[in-house]
Amino acid sequence: MPLALIPTPTHLEECEGAPFRFGPGTRLIAPPELDGVAGFVWAVLGPLATVTRDDGAADAVVLRPDGGTGEAYTLTVDADRVVVAGSPAGIARGVATLAQVSGLGTEGAPSGVVPALVIRDEPRYERRGLMVDVVRHFYPVSTLERVIDLLAAYKLNVLHLHLTDDQGWRIEVPGRPELVERSGRTQCGDGEAGWLRTEEYTRLVEYAAARHIEVVPELDVPGHVNAALHADGSLSPSGQPTEAYTGADVGFSKLDLSLPATAPFLADVLGHLADLTPGRYLHIGGDEVHRMPRDEYLGFLDHVSGAVAATGKSLIAWQEAAAAGLPSDALVQLWDSNADPAPVVAAAQRGIGVVLSPGKHVYLDMKYDADHPLGQDWAGTVDVRQSYEWDPDTYLPELPATAVRGVEAAIWTEFIATEDELFSMLLPRLVAIAELAWSPQRSRSWESFAPRLAAHAPLWTAAGVAFHESEQVWGRGRPDVAVA
Ligand code: TNX
Q1: How confident is the prediction for the chain on average, in pLDDT?
Q2: pLDDT tens for each residue of 433-464
Q3: Cβ neighbours of residue 230 closer than 8 Å, sequence gap 6 or more
Q4: What is the mean pLDDT of the segment spanning 388-406?
Q5: Is residue 457 part of a domain?
Q6: What is the pTM (predicted TM-score) of this model?
Q7: Strand positions, DSSP E, 54-188
Q8: 344 CA to centre of ligand 1 in angstroms
Q9: Residue nearest to atom 2 of ligand 1 (CA)
Q10: Which residue range(s) make up the domain with 317?
Q11: 70 and 190 in one domain?
Q12: How far apart are the C-alpha atoms of 245 and 265, rounded to whole Å?
């Protein structure tokens, strides 16, 4: 079987010469500005002796910054050396490719032998992400680090964390300890949840940054706020804390900007999230506010837009917010395959970028098939092929292709509880979406992708993460699939 690279690279040339072999003497040559990436390199290639200066000797993996920006990279392998060239972010993507070419030989087993080749590669979209709902069920740092490892392995570059909702509040805010103390332990059902302490969140952001992955925190307002109203009675018109909520309904809670406590609450939380965020964006939610008159909703979004601008960040919001007068540096995230997309198209015509998360393709809380025990099906069932076979540039024909800034998968966790359940919903569909978001449309096909995907299963097993053996990929209908 040929090299089973995912995402398939823009340009790949396999060369005639002898392969490179990792051995006990193999050194890593990484200039000091790549310090942050070195930890990632060791994690995927093993603990190589590392030096900062290139003396030109053989038996080396060379990380070579080329002064560029963006995520393009070149990977050149011959018998003597492996060279990964690009910007620091590009080098991180090239290292992910190197991990695959040295791990997946013809038998699909890790070999440490890298065939002579030249790969020149760059992403199709600038934003390629995953949203994880850590509210409906909570996942600790250890699980989220494993999720980041998965993103890095498949060249995704955004982890969007849904941190607040009706059922719980998952992030400490200085001066407002009641948010986690009163609302940190609840989630959907009766299990005990938890929250991310400031040090934990910071550690997670650093772990992601070493892999050139941006963490986007989401404060979901003005709806999905029962956990805040339960923690702080002054945010409710009655002045009394609401009851805790552990069901799976949406759309019943809201913030009230006419209360004196509301604006300071927003300023404090957004200010803190901005302090924790090296990236450019904060996500302000804006979805499913079913009990608020339209004018009030639009006024609220004006206020939040100002509050985000005051932090120096730009905002991202779910598609409902497209109807508001969002600033031109905002992004909107399309999710509801059943809703009228006209406001999103109109916002794009005003220059606002769009991230595509269409439920019927990339909502990874949807069941694989009607009998699947986990998740839900309001956007339909979503098997691997349904995640893979669509074109973001033409998904909304009215949307100018330049407005499409990227693709983000989402996993909502009302009906997904354990880490194994989480990974079995991510894998293998997230890997399909990673290829969709990185590789040119013309070089993708399901027929090429399915056997490559099957060849990756041993890597997931080696990483100790669960996956769903979809019939579409591993079924008896595909006798040509080589599984190691
Ligand atoms: C819609 S997608 C929601 C979430 C639910 C999800 C379940 C979006 C912006 N809002 O509150 O968890 O459906 O699939």
Answers
A1: 94
A2: 999 999 999 999 999 999 999 999 988 998 89
A3: 182, 183, 241, 242, 243, 244, 245
A4: 95
A5: no
A6: 0.96
A7: 60-65, 73-77, 81-86, 113-114, 117-121, 127-133, 158-162
A8: 18
A9: 335
A10: 127-446+463-469
A11: no
A12: 20
